[in-house]
Design a protein that fits this description.
The protein is of the alpha/beta class. It contains 18 helices and 14 strands. The protein has helices spanning about 35-40, 55-65, 80-85, 90-105, 115-120, 125-135, 155-165, 190-205, 240-245, 260-275, 280-295, 300-305, 315-325, 345-350, 365-375, 385-390, 400-405, 415-430, and strands spanning about 20-25, 45-50, 75, 110-115, 140-145, 185, 210-215, 230, 250, 305-310, 330-335, 355-360, 380, 395-400. A six-stranded parallel β-sheet has the order 1-12-11-10-13-14, with helices on both faces. Strands 3-2-4-5 form a four-stranded parallel β-sheet, sandwiched between helices. Strands 7-6-8-9 form a four-stranded parallel β-sheet, sandwiched between helices. Strand 6 (about 185), helix 8 (about 190-205) and strand 7 (about 210-215) form a beta-alpha-beta unit. Helix 10 runs antiparallel to helix 11 (about 280-295). It is globular and about 60 Å long. The chain starts with 18 loop residues before the first strand and ends with a helix.
């Protein structure tokens, strides 16, 4: 496929630089991978992938679930009879769902997850979800979303899942005493420990009520209305943000909570919306800032001045690049991302140096050529590229590990820095 280059110019930082837009062969996981962290978050939800045996093998391998475990995901296999039209796929799906819910009465929220095979045979999972939800209501709510990897990258699985839930979120009731009451919703799947840390900080700042989306239980969905303010915890939730805004909620513009700087400015956006005095804000965040700076400082000697190249994979690339550049003094060469949402990433982009190459999309062969020519000290890429590049003598960091690992907030800043220093430390030991 031909390479397309488009130039966009803004006002500051990396936004003033040309954006290299590429279309071609890509190296990414599909959106089904998002189930691996989502099924751990919503404790009474179940993810039923409607797909092929390949889909089942992917999820099982990615999750590393042992054979005797009782996971909260499974695959309804589309086999030859379904593809040949010899069986009614909807009847078969109803049978599988009924058997699943009979065996697992703890399920309160069931997702029918579309895949490449289900979309190829044009199985209408949206209609199936409506039919099944009516049948099993009110005990179980059935929703659907697409995890197909035909035109998406793997973190969009979470975006599609959350966006599918937004229309059914409860309507925020108006506070009769004051006429209105602002509420804050933190959007994006976070590890429970990170969620608890943020909740304590919001409580200390006097910000609330605060809800997290997705919640830990299906009956704890946040209420949404015109007085709802929301903060994105992840940069890959474009569809979810649009759906929330369509419900009347307002997004608070902020850096993403990665590193000390990002976490502080993310919290400040909420503090400003709640008119928290500057003195109080500084006093509340100061201990976390100090812990984060001390933890990150331990990795300066190994990372400062080293060059890093980002292949597009997770959509976390821009805020991660900002963290590495500003807090660890690494030299950015190319920062590639599958999709560049300029509005959501505006503040992070403004803090990137204007000397980098910023690319959107992927033509993997051309990007490999540029990476080899630059010879960076560290390459952040997907699993499919990491081993070949390691064989060529490059040092790599798996980008998917940055999604599976808690990296948001003050107390995770040092762990995040270590994820980048560890491959370089390993390479040093091997060479010794």
């Amino acid at each position: 496929m031909s390479q397309v280059i488009a130039i966009q110019r803004e006002s500051s930082g990396c936004q003033d630089q040309p954006v290299l837009r590429e279309r071609g062969q890509r190296e990414v996981f599909c959106g089904l991978t998002g189930i691996i962290w989502l099924h751990r978050k919503i404790q009474d939800a179940f993810f039923l992938v409607v797909g092929s045996r390949t889909c089942a093998h992917l999820i099982q391998s990615a999750a590393g679930v042992m054979i005797f475990a009782e996971p909260r995901f499974a695959t309804a296999i589309i086999d030859e009879r379904d593809l040949a039209g010899l069986a009614d796929a909807n009847v078969e799906l109803d049978r599988v769902v009924t058997r699943l819910l009979d065996r697992r009465p703890d399920i309160k929220l069931l997702f029918l997850v579309g895949s490449c095979p289900s979309e190829v045979i044009k199985l209408d999972l949206g209609r199936a979800a409506q039919r099944l939800s009516q049948r099993f209501s009110p005990s179980v709510r059935v929703l659907n979303y697409s995890g197909s990897g035909i035109e998406t990258t793997f973190t969009q699985g979470e975006d599609a899942c959350l966006a599918a839930m937004v229309p059914s979120l409860p309507v925020a009731a108006e506070n009769q005493a004051s006429g209105s009451q602002k509420s804050l919703v933190v959007v994006g799947a976070l590890a429970d420990v990170v969620e608890d840390q943020f909740k304590r900080l919001f409580d200390q700042l006097g910000i609330g009520p605060v809800a997290f989306f997705p919640p830990r239980r299906a009956n704890a969905m946040p209420e949404i209305g015109p007085d709802t303010r929301f903060l994105l915890a992840q940069p890959f939730l474009a569809d979810t943000a649009r759906a929330l805004e369509a419900r009347g909620a307002t997004r608070l513009d902020a850096l993403f909570p990665i590193g000390e700087e990002g976490t502080t400015e993310w919290l400040r956006a909420a503090a400003d919306a709640w008119d928290v005095p500057t003195e109080k804000f500084d006093a509340v965040v100061a201990p976390g800032q100090a812990r984060a700076r001390r933890a990150v400082e331990m990795h300066h000697a190994l990372l400062s001045g080293r060059s890093v190249f980002f292949f597009p994979d997770s959509q976390l690339e821009v805020p991660l690049a900002r963290f590495l550049s500003r807090e660890l003094k690494m030299n950015l060469t190319e920062v590639g991302t599958p999709y560049l949402h300029r509005q959501h990433l505006a503040r992070d982009l403004a803090l990137l140096p204007d000397s980098i190459t910023l690319s959107e999309g992927q033509h993997v062969e051309r990007q490999l050529d540029r990476c080899r020519a630059l010879k960076p000290d560290l390459v952040v890429c997907g699993l499919g590229l990491a081993n070949p590049l390691e064989a060529e003598g490059m040092t790599t960091k798996w980008s998917i590990e940055l999604v599976f690992t808690p990296i948001q907030g003050y107390d995770q800043a040092g762990d995040l820095a270590e994820l980048f220093s560890r491959p370089l430390h390993r390479r040093t030991k091997i060479a010794a």
